[in-house]
Write a structure and sequence with these properties.
The complex is a heterodimer of chains A (251) and B (251). Chain A is mainly alpha-helical and 251 residues long. Chain A has helices spanning 2-19, 28-48, 53-77, 85-90, 96-113, 116-123, 135-159, 163-177, 194-197, 200-212, 219-243, 247-250. Classes of the chains: A mainly alpha (251), B alpha/beta (251).
Chain lengths: 251, 251
């Protein structure tokens, strides 16, 4: 178990290092591209929505960082096994090692991007509060959900090779249909609108985003995320009991 | 105690056609009740190993012979845990070292030094061993200053020497090998032979697949002949080699 994590961590760090090896800015070139994205969307959409920049930009920055972390991980988890083909054919590791590698890599990338937030908050004079700490349990609950989702998608993608592109399209649609760039009270009924209340990505986003913005995430979002984690973990457990030995054949 | 027992091991490979690998086609199949695409389920299996029962004790140097596709590599991969038998049981006690493909986990973008750490960890070589043997690995590979260059700048011979030096650092109780490792470079061959010979002689059990009569007779003390995934003969090297290769020409 410890060994599995050590290898996952080692490979994740290597992945990350190599991805910015030839860049002078090092790990922060990704951060800069996120910052530019936030600035651009922030200026354009705060004008379109006629909202105050000091309200819109912190909202957008938090939303975008968390949302890209979640969907970025899910997208890469599709390749967790497929990319490790060489290793899977030669060695036996706990399949979770490959999902762990993807998750650690994405969490580290997210940590780099996170430096944008304090800058935005300071510049735009957002108030700091202890309530922000609620984002930590929120984030942990998101990780639990990503853990089972990663196990699910990596296995499905391995078996059905046309799944990753299908998933890519779903993510694009999800970006526009989830309140990332827009506020949930801009649709009729707000958070009780089924467009939002049935969107798992909204709830996962909420439990991290709302505390950071000094609000409370709705109880619904917490319950939704927790129930999803419990059911999902159970489903994936059963799925892996049955199919984890097929991984080497499907690769 | 180091020990290998296979009891009535069968290994079935699922072979999928393009349709069976497609989620879209599979969903269409469900939606149309399979009527339109009858017989297109892609449910072909290939039996790679058929009813293999073998016990291997410490001290045995087992050679595997057979034509291409006779199941030698599949058998090695059952032993190192990559494939789980479709039926029957496989019990392997002892630390396994696998030289089936020594290029496992190599990353062309990373430097030689970085690859030593990751590849060794993937091969199951402990961190302390790597630290202790690092000068020896570098020295043996004859890479000199190239060790801190990305592996993509290496010639194939240099890469081979690096991987060989890493892989032969392990001290497994059970050693699995698919063909005798040959390292092309003339000047390197002799010391490579010595190093591999030492590794082979120090291991408790060797399972070694090969097409070369000479290597097998000089290394092994037991020979198993596989044909169509079944054991055709199992016994002392001389008898089985005579049966498989034909009687040796007496000079």
């Amino acid at each position: 178990m410890r060994k599995t994590w050590r290898i996952a961590q080692m490979l994740a760090v290597q992945d990350l290092k190599l991805s910015y090896r030839r860049s002078t800015l090092g790990p922060f070139w990704l951060t800069i591209s996120s910052a530019v994205q936030i600035a651009t969307i922030g200026i354009v959409f705060s004008t379109i929505f006629k909202s105050d920049i000091s309200v819109y930009v912190p909202y957008l920055a938090t939303s975008l960082l968390i949302f890209t972390f979640i969907t970025g991980f899910l997208n890469e988890s599709n390749m967790s096994f497929i990319q490790a083909e060489g290793i899977i054919r030669q060695m036996h590791f706990d399949p979770s090692m490959y999902i762990g590698r993807t998750l650690i890599r994405n969490v580290l990338g997210f940590a780099h991007n996170l430096v944008i937030l304090p800058v935005v908050f300071l510049v735009l004079g957002m108030p700091w509060s202890l309530g922000m700490l609620m984002a930590i349990p929120g984030f942990l609950l998101v990780l639990v959900n990503l853990w089972w989702l990663g196990h699910l998608f990596s296995l499905v993608s391995l078996r059905f090779r046309d799944f990753p592109p299908i998933f890519g399209s779903i993510i694009t649609v999800a970006f526009y249909s989830t309140p990332v760039m827009w506020f949930s009270d801009q649709v009729p009924g707000g958070e009780s609108n089924p467009l939002i209340s049935l969107n798992p990505l909204f709830h996962l986003l909420s439990i991290v985003r709302s505390p950071l913005l000094g609000e409370m995430a709705s109880e619904t979002s917490w319950v939704f995320s927790a129930v999803m984690a419990a059911i999902g973990t159970a489903v994936v457990f059963v799925l892996y009991q049955r199919y984890q030995h097929k991984i080497a054949f499907w690769i | 105690m180091t020990h290998i027992t296979l009891d009535k091991v069968c290994l079935d490979f699922p072979v999928y056609n393009a349709d069976a690998r497609s989620l879209k086609s599979s969903l269409v199949n469900v939606a149309t009740g399979g009527q339109l695409r009858a017989g297109n389920k892609g449910g072909i299996t290939v039996r790679a190993l058929d009813d293999i029962s073998v016990t291997i004790e410490p001290g045995e140097r087992v050679g595997l012979v057979g034509h291409n596709g006779s199941g030698k590599s599949s058998l090695l991969r059952v032993l190192n845990g990559v494939y789980r038998p479709s039926s029957g049981t496989s019990s392997v006690d002892g630390e396994i070292g696998s030289l089936i493909d020594i290029n496992i986990g190599i990353n062309p973008e990373a430097t030689g030094l970085e690859n030593i750490t990751t590849c060794a960890a993937l091969m199951g070589i402990s961190k302390s061993t790597v630290v202790e043997k690092l000068p020896d690995i570098i020295d043996f590979s004859e890479l000199g200053n190239y060790i801190s260059m990305p592996v993509r700048t290496y010639s194939s011979g240099m890469q081979m020497r690096l991987m060989f030096s890493i892989a032969t650092t392990m001290k497994p109780q059970i050693l699995l090998m698919d063909e005798w490792l040959s390292v092309g470079d003339e000047s390197f061959v002799k010391k490579a032979e010595e190093r591999l010979g030492k590794l082979v002689s120090e291991t408790d059990i060797l399972v070694f697949a090969s097409h070369s009569r000479e290597t097998i007779t000089s290394t092994c003390n037991r020979l198993i002949w596989l044909e169509h995934g079944r054991i055709k003969a199992d016994g002392d090297v001389r008898t089985v080699a005579d049966a498989y290769f034909g009687p040796e020409n007496s000079l």
